[in-house]
Amino acid sequence: MNKDQDIIDCLRLINSPKVGPVTFYKLLETYQTPEEALSQLKKRHDVIPFSEAEAEKELAKARKAGLQLLLYSDKEYPQNLKRLEDAPPVLYVRGNVSCLENPLAVSVVGARNASVSGRKLAAQIAYELTNNKVTVVSGMARGIDAAAHKGALHAQNRQGPTVAVLGTGADVIYPKENTELYQQICEQGAVISEFPAGTEPQAANFPRRNRIVSALGLGTLVIEATLNSGSLITARLALEQGREVFAVPGFPTDGRAAGPNKLIKEGAALIENAGDILNILCATNRHIINEQLSLDLTQSPSRAKDTGKSTGCEEKTKIIDYLSCDGVYVDEIIRLTGLPPAEVMSELLNLELQGIIERQTGNKVALVK
Description:
Blueprint: H1 3-14, H2 21-31, H3 34-41, H4 52-64, E1 68-71, H5 79-82, E2 90-95, E3 105-110, H6 116-131, E4 135-138, H7 144-153, H8 155-158, E5 162-165, H9 179-188, E6 190-193, H10 205-216, E7 219-223, H11 230-240, E8 244-248, H12 258-265, E9 269-270, H13 274-284, H14 286-289, H15 301-306, H16 314-321, E10 328-329, H17 330-337, H18 341-353, E11 357-360, E12 364-367
Helix pairs in contact: 1-3, 1-4, 2-3, 6-7, 6-13, 7-9, 10-11
């Protein structure tokens, strides 16, 4: 049987009435293949299987949108996701499918109306994780999600991969303000979804996609979240899936700190930097880390700075140290840091794109208040 027919059979089975992911896999246990399961469904009077014509139409639509369909049985299908009882039998992917094969991954979630410091920390942690060969997974929402993706993309000499899990079709950009981010993720990483091409934003789909976000990572990091936020749902799902839960503490009077602080009280690991996450992964997932032959996670980013081993993040931190809310001349930053002008301008642009700084008249830049 050819690959297209495999895809069509899977699409028919998962889209048939009364068949969700859990039922899909139970049918396979009994009948071995989607083709045989479909033949058995046809014998029932209460179920009319999804037609082959409709499945062919869906496949053609996805390919026209530039999407690749990844089946549960494909070797590229994420191993972490396969452990999920209701893993999507079919994933729609745009971008580099190979980056989904790295089992060493961490999911990062948090508030959409994130603070400047929250976005900055999310980007920094994602940057350092990516430089340590850890794939950062998030949902491409505003705030923490977007900051985490940007931090990962800037790692590995601006070639870092990252994975975005959408609650829309993989070809539908939401929110629209993240169009440029979406395009860059497709170029360097992958955008994935369990929803068919062209699926527009629907409120019910976003909580559903959260189970994929948490399942793809060995752990989920929460940075800023209210008590009723979707980020806490993702953290709960991570716990149910047997994953680690990490949380960055916040000031008690900030509503966005309530979620992470609650998680820490309940046993989540308190995280201050990427090194904290790397050390925990090193202790709890040694069997996976040993497979990544080029990894050396025994050296955390925070300790690397003390021992003179660079993580590649010191320049950005150094520049930020010289910024203020009142504004600083760019020429003065170049003089004080001693960095090449081109490098300073590049880093300032990155900070501006992340919403950390703003331009002022007279060639000055300032931290966003």
